[in-house]
Amino acid sequence: MLATLALRAGRAVSHMELVDELWCGSPLGNPRNALQAQATRVRKVLEAHTPMHRTTVLRSIPNGYLLDVPAECVDANRFLDLASRGGAALTTDPERAARLLETGLRLWRGPALFDAGEGLRCASAATLFEERRLTAWEDLVSARLVLGHNTQVIAELQQLVAQHPLHERFCELLMLALYRSGRQSEALERFRLTRKRLDEQLGIQPGAGLQRRHAEILAQDPGLAQPGALAPDRRVTTGV
Question: Could you tell me which CDD domains the record lists for this protein (predicted)?
């Protein structure tokens, strides 16, 4: 219940929406009483952490409930804002981008909405947050590579690749970091392992971006040393 209300902090959530989220269509003898019992439990937890001068954070309103806090008090909203601003600053101010993204990623304590039940709203939000988390990691590593921290990010990227072996962008960034650190053979081996895993588990070949990175490393493309090599949609240029 708290997660559902926090996802819409400062806005009303109807009784019907809450019942649907908490019990996922299971029949209830008295939905209103069930919600009141949940609300009482939530209030006890919240009031233990609420300053004395504040009124109750969880408010009952006609036909629903409202979590009476600013949206920016919810870590999920803070993360999305920091990730968005960090990604926007990547090409113009990589140092600022890295600071914003690091701050956003430090808000995480585990999988998004891990114990929030099976309701559609929380499940959809969890998927969104996890996708944005991966994008934030991509942007953070890209910012560090733009800043020239090639060797320093290798261990971090190896961990990300191990955790998300089918996420091609992490593999692509790791290949670039290895190549820039004078480890071309390891970069090519990483491509081989990822291609093998994609074929065995999904029956597909690497995407255009990863194949392009492989070709650039084979050709020792001078452009790999440039900041533009970090752009996901970079195209190989040929002299004419």
Answer: BTAD
